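Quick review question:
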């Protein structure tokens, strides 16, 4: 793994939700569990209102 690819991986772990653009600790947890960069609040709203 080169240094540049490692830097790109760290940029992905910035805890900023792709839906609401807020910073939350649950973003990195959901990224690991589901593969999506969404916070706990957005994940709940997507589950209740899937449209």
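Suggested answer, residue by residue:
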């Amino acid at each position: 793994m080169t240094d540049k690819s490692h830097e790109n991986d760290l940029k992905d772990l910035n805890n900023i939700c792709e839906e609401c653009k807020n910073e939350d600790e649950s973003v990195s947890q959901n990224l690991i569990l589901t593969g999506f960069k969404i916070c706990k609040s957005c994940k709940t709203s997507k589950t209740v209102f899937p449209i």
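Why it works: Residues 1 and 49 are 40 Å apart (CA to CA). The mean pLDDT is 85.
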